[in-house]
Design brief:
Length: 135
């Protein structure tokens, strides 16, 4: 892949993952065996497994991680941003729900082309619990 196309692919991944994804995975179920062939499908596959705990509306956490071509995690995810409020118990439950979503979603069933394109690339999804009453 040419250096410019790597930059464009990385920027696209950041843009799609960095936006709040409160309910973006409605069309995909958790652990769906359907092949993941796009960044959006990858995002949907992860967020389909995420259920924010009650009382965490407005909390947000951004993780940084990479995946292998077989859809498994490389290393441990690292938090790069958080807005978790002041309630320690709710904050811990919120973070635990995100880690459980990753555990439930992975390994992702990447298509051959997606696996080759995404392998080792840095991903930065932001998990934001929807505000109550927001649509």
């Amino acid at each position: 892949m040419k250096p410019r196309s790597v930059f464009v692919a990385a920027a696209l991944a950041v843009a799609l993952f960095a936006s709040p994804n409160e309910a973006s995975a409605q069309e995909r179920t958790c652990r769906s065996p359907d092949p993941v062939d796009t960044i959006k499908e990858m995002s949907d596959a992860i967020f389909a497994c995420w259920k924010p705990p009650a009382g965490t509306a407005g909390m947000s956490l951004t993780l940084q991680f990479s995946l292998r071509r077989n859809g498994t995690l490389i290393g441990k995810p690292r938090a790069t941003y958080s807005d978790l409020g002041t309630d320690t118990q709710l904050s811990r439950a919120f973070v635990a729900s995100i880690l459980k979503a990753l555990d439930d979603a992975l390994p992702l069933p990447f298509s051959d082309s997606m696996g080759g394109a995404i392998a080792g690339r840095m991903l930065v999804p932001r998990f934001t619990a929807a505000l109550e009453g927001a649509s």
